[in-house]
Amino acid sequence: MVRDLLFVFEIGKTFPFFGLLDANDKIALCSNIAMPLYSLCKNFYSVQQNCDIVCNPSGVLTINIFANTYYNEDPVAMGMGHTLLCKAIEPFRRLKLSTEEFVLIRAIIYSHMVSPGLSDQAQKLLFTEAEKYSSLLMNIVQINYGAAPGALRYVELMGLIEGLFNMGAKHRQLFTYISNVLDPNFDRVMPSVLAKICTKGPVESHQLFPF
């Protein structure tokens, strides 16, 4: 998971607009989109591997790893884990995103202009970027599916993005529950800044962007 979250921040640096954000805006944006992007990538690549539930790159089912820890004795943790690792993949299996759709959905999430804590300047910049990537997505699905069916798929993909933010919130609930109730050492198994992002805690600019 640490690698997946670090990958989120590294990809962010590849967007030209990202370098135009100041440190506080980068923190506000990344803190809000990290878990939705984590959910997007895990579910998309699991479907690419023809898995019915979330799996890791080697094909091992993540729920089995989760169940083989002492968390399996806690019905709350296992219930939340089942929702995120088994049920959340269903819209991805139904929609079967193309690589182009995945890349543009990821770009739209990176330009999420309503992230709490963003400055007015950052919101305006991200709004312009979100419009650009949304228009590209609409164009691609209409080319691939036709005008009306493409517009319908665009609506479905926008709904998927909303669902990803809900998934991100559920991931934070799970990690907050684990860190506060089950495992007080949770923030020691990964860099503290990532543990804080997983549980929606505050982070400092030098922790996320040391260079």
UniProtKB/TrEMBL annotation:
Annotated NR LBD domain residues: 1-197
The keyword Aminoacyl-tRNA synthetase appears for this protein: no
InterPro entries (alphabetical): NHR-like_dom_sf, Nucl_hrmn_rcpt_lig-bd
Keyword entries, A-Z: Receptor, Transcription, Transcription regulation
PROSITE patterns, per database record: NR_LBD
Domain of life: Eukaryota
SUPFAM superfamilies: Nuclear receptor ligand-binding domain
Gene3D superfamilies: Retinoid X Receptor
UniProt similarity note: Belongs to the nuclear hormone receptor family.
Protein name: NR LBD domain-containing protein
Biological source species: Heterodera trifolii
